[in-house]
Amino acid sequence: MVSLSDIKQFFRGYIGINEPMAKYTSMRVGGPADYYLEPADKADLVEIVKYFQSNKFPYIMVGRGSNILVSDKGIRGAVINIEAALPHVRLEGDLVVAEAGITLAKFVDFCVQQGLAGVEMLAGIPGSMGGAIVMNAGAHGGEISDHLVEVEVFRNGRVQKIPKLEAGFAYRTSAFGGDIVLSASFRLPKGNKEELLNKRRELILKRNTTQPLQLPNSGSMFKNPPGHFAARLIEQAGLKGKRVGNAQISEKHANFIVNLGGAKASDVLTLIDLARRTVHQNTGILLELEVKLVGFPEDVPSQVA
Ligand SMILES: Cc1cc2nc3c(=O)[nH]c(=O)nc-3n(C[C@H](O)[C@H](O)[C@H](O)COP(=O)(O)OP(=O)(O)OC[C@H]3O[C@@H](n4cnc5c(N)ncnc54)[C@H](O)[C@@H]3O)c2cc1C
After folding, report:
1. For residue 79, how far is its CA from the centre of ligand 1 (angstroms)?
2. Mean pLDDT of the chain
3. Domain 89-196 - what CATH class?
C-alpha cells in the first residue's frame, strides 16, 4: 500500500488528491485521479516511480493530455505529469536534446530559431515531447521519429538510451508504452530560418481553418486506415454534426469530437462507437482509435478500439 504521508517524506513536487483529470486533458473531460503528481525534477520522478513500482501501485504518465480520453469515473492509482520536471531543450554538439516535458511548440520554435529543419511540420500539435514520442506524432507526411537518434527512458528500474531502430516506431505508435520517456535526441538538417518560419506560420494557419480549435477536443479520434481518411469515411456516413449529450462530431472536421461544454466521457465514447459501427456497416472498414482510453473498464477498449 502507498500512503500520502510516506510520499510526502521524500517527494518534492506537487501532489493532488482526487484531482479532476478534466483540468489536464485537452478534451476537458475525465473524473478524478486518486493521486496526481508533478515531480520537481528527474531525481524526484525516478524516486516516485520506484516507490510505486516497489508497492505495485498503478500509475500512468501524462503529458499535455491531448491524446487521451479519461473516463468519467477517473483513474484509480496515480497520474504523473513531468512537464515541470523536464521542460528543457538544448544543443549538444550536433544533436538537439529535448526533455520529455517540453511542449512541441517550444521544441519546434527552438529548432526553427537555430535554422534546423525537419520538425517544422509538427507546429500546431498541442502535445509534449514525451507524448509525441510515445505516439510517434506526425503531420503533413512527417513524423517526430524521422530525424530522431535515440530516446532516454526509465525502464526496468534504470535510465537507459534506446536507439531509434529499437523504438518500434510506426504510424502513431512506438514501443514505449510501458516506459517513462525522459528525453529525445535529434540530428536535424540545416534549413533556411526565414523559410522555416514561413512554413510554420502557414501550417498553423491551415490548422486554424480546417480544425475546430475553438472547442475542447483531442485531435483526430481515429487513425487513417490505409488508403483512406477517417474524417471522410465518417462524413460519408452522415455523422458530421451528430451530437450525444454535449459531445459532438465536429461540423468542421469529422474526425474530431468536440466538447460543447460539460460533455461526459461516456458521451464521447457513444459517438466513437457510433462512428465505428456506421463506417464498418457502410464500408467494411474498422476504424482504429488513435486516442488512448484511460480509466475505463478493461473490456471497453476492445469494444471500441
Ligand atoms: C487540436 C489537436 C491537434 C492534433 N494534431 C495532431 C497531429 O497533427 N498529429 C498527431 O500525431 N497528433 C495530433 N494530436 C494529438 C496529440 O497532440 C499528440 O498525440 C501528442 O503528441 C500527444 O502528446 P501529449 O503530451 O498530449 O500526450 P498525452 O495525451 O498526455 O499522452 C499520450 C500517451 O503518451 C503517454 N505519455 C505521455 N508522456 C509520456 C512520457 N513522458 N513517458 C511515457 N509515456 C508518456 C501517455 O500515457 C499516453 O499513453 C492533436 C491533438 C489536438 C488536441
Report:
1. 15
2. 96
3. alpha beta
